[in-house]
Design a protein that fits this description.
The protein has about 290 residues and is α+β, with helices and mostly antiparallel strands. The protein is about 15% helix and about 60% strand. Helix 1 runs antiparallel to helix 2. The protein starts with a helix and ends with a helix.
Length: about 290
């Protein structure tokens, strides 16, 4: 009878262990995205009586470009990259990397304008398990490696407006015991740099930056963060002189992140493990009572 009880107990414990192993560790994850869309350029006549029609002449000194990188640190170190350049301002670009512990994506729709694109996006995701972790980077821009130059007519204001969206998220955030962390970043950037006829710098830029790290709750536990933003961004330059003015423009979206937090079992996995251990304890107590 004792042998049967012990066999049953051993089988139950083995089943619990197998169930835990089958459930496996949950992935910790960091991810982010950044998008520009519906970019427009507006010229405003600051002096309708000067007889000068608003005009913008630009030189495509740079090319629409997307780039991305993934790094996976596991049994082996794996790194992949892409860098795609569009010759001219016609067409679109798409790039994607999907590794076991990281992914990176970027896309761009070009436009024959000073900006070099009408829409651009970048996104990425990094995972971590007990065996490894990942990192990612992605960027999309209408001007690389230089900024596009322009000449703006006298008494004219140029305004560049674009709809933007950004997300950044971590799941675990920070492992206090192992000093390991997650991080997710999203960045949107517009910049106009211009110089008047007397060499005075006049320009403006706008950027949106999101960073998701971790939060410490009232009970001392640590959780990840979620950051998001949706809105409109704009950059402008007003040439208030009677002479044309020259300048440069750049816009890009980029993301980056890492997850190096050791993954933890799901709650249901813990439940199965605890059930198995409880059964072991109950069997041990029962055996002692019989011996007594």
């Amino acid at each position: 009878m004792k042998r049967i009880a012990r066999s049953t107990l051993a089988a139950a414990c083995a089943a619990a262990v197998v169930a835990v192993a089958a459930a496996g560790p949950a992935h910790a994850a960091a991810s982010s995205s950044a998008t520009f869309g519906n970019l427009t350029i507006t010229l405003t006549d600051l002096d309708p009586n000067d007889g000068i029609a608003p005009s913008l002449i630009y030189q495509a000194d740079a090319q629409p470009t997307i780039m991305g990188e993934t790094r996976s640190f596991g049994d082996e170190f794996v790194q992949h990259t892409f860098n795609k350049v569009l010759v001219g301002q016609q067409g679109g670009l798409n790039g994607a990397l999907n590794d076991e512990l990281a992914s990176s994506n970027a896309s761009l729709t070009s436009a024959v304008t000073l900006a070099g694109f009408s829409s651009a996006s970048a996104s990425g995701k990094a995972l971590s398990t007990v065996d490894g972790n990942g990192r990612y980077f992605a960027e999309a821009t209408g001007q690389d490696p230089y900024m596009n130059s322009f000449t703006l007519s006298a008494n004219t204001m140029m305004t560049i407006t674009v709809n933007g969206s950004a997300r950044a998220q971590t799941t675990i955030g920070y492992n206090l015991d192992a000093f390991q962390a997650e991080e997710a970043n999203a960045h949107l950037f517009l910049d106009i740099e211009a110089y008047t006829d007397n060499g005075t710098y006049v320009g403006g830029y706008q950027e949106t930056t999101l960073q998701a790290l971790y939060e410490v709750k009232d009970d001392g536990s640590v959780v990840g963060q979620t950051q998001s933003w949706d809105g409109q961004m704009s950059a402008s330059f007003s040439n208030k002189t009677g002479q044309s003015a020259s300048g440069f423009f750049v816009a890009d979206v980029d993301v980056s992140g890492l997850s190096s937090v050791a993954a933890v079992p799901e709650p249901e996995t813990y439940a199965m493990l605890m059930a198995g251990l409880a059964l072991v304890g109950w069997g041990a107590k029962r055996a002692k009572r019989r011996q007594a």
